[in-house]
Amino acid sequence: MESLFSLGTIAFVVFIWLISCIKIVNEYERAVIFRLGKVLPQPKGPGLVFIFKPVDRGVIVSLRTVVLDVPSQDVITRDNVSLKVSAVVYFRVLDVKQAILGVENYYYATSQIAQTTLRSILGEVSLDELLADREKLSLRLREIIDSSTEPWGIEVTAVELKSVDLPEQIQRAMGKQAEAEREKRAKVIAAEGELMASQQLLEAANKISQNPVAIQMRYLQTLGEIAVEKNSTIVFPLPMELLKMMDRIGAVQPPKEN
């Protein structure tokens, strides 16, 4: 009886041990197996994986793309403007063995590399370059971070600058600059309009001066436009040539004193 009890106990312990050695690895995961401290040549998974405990030890690594939120970093640009910049880094594990053997914590290491690179690269550009060439800077950040994490089996797929927080005085200065630019464009447009109008008037004057009848017709048209508005006073323009001719023949003379 005692032997049967002992066999049952041993069978139960063996069953519990077998259950604990079975590991289910998802499709997007791989298991790096250490046997007596030495890593096996090939990771295991996906599916049902048997880990021979306590001889084997398994480390599960995800192959999915990780979205790493880089917190706001204090950056001083090349033109001595202090601001806060945050970014997002997308990366994934290509070599699961190297991600475990090459670095202690690949997630934390990638985060630190991203923060350091963000501060150093943005410190080399001016504020205008940061605001205008964000795509170019994002590509440069991705290349540098990817080259730094490549020995760990990490591939950085994209880096995006999420937000740029400017000081209030810089925002006010940029607002004044934008307002001055708008006023400048408005004055330039008005000057161009005056130039075009003067050119059109010059062409019209040249055409009208070729025919005296056209001048008279223009006078009559002007009087018709004034009469439509029902003005009580109508000013009739006289040609300057008529006044000069009257002055020459002596029609216009100053009054004589008695």
Which properties best describe this structure?
258 residues; alpha+beta; Tetrahydropterin Synthase, Chain A; 3 domains; three-stranded antiparallel beta sheet; 8 helices; 52% helix; rod-shaped
In short:
With 258 residues, the protein is α+β, with helices and mostly antiparallel strands. 52% of the residues lie in helices and 23% in strands. The termini are far apart.
Summarize the structure in words.
The structure is a single chain. The termini are far apart. A hairpin with a 2-residue loop joins strand 2 and strand 3 (38-39). This protein has three domains: 2-62, no CATH class; 66-166, 2-Layer Sandwich (Tetrahydropterin Synthase, Chain A), CATH 3.30.479; 211-250, no CATH class. The chain contains eight helices and eight strands. 52% of the residues lie in helices and 23% in strands. The protein is rod-shaped, with a radius of gyration of 43 Å. Helix 3 (106-122) packs across helix 5 (134-149).
Sheet-strand content, in percent, reads 15-25%
Could you please say which CATH topology of the largest domain applies here? Tetrahydropterin Synthase, Chain A
Cα-based radius of gyration, to the nearest Å: 43 Å
Helicity, as a percent range: 40-55%
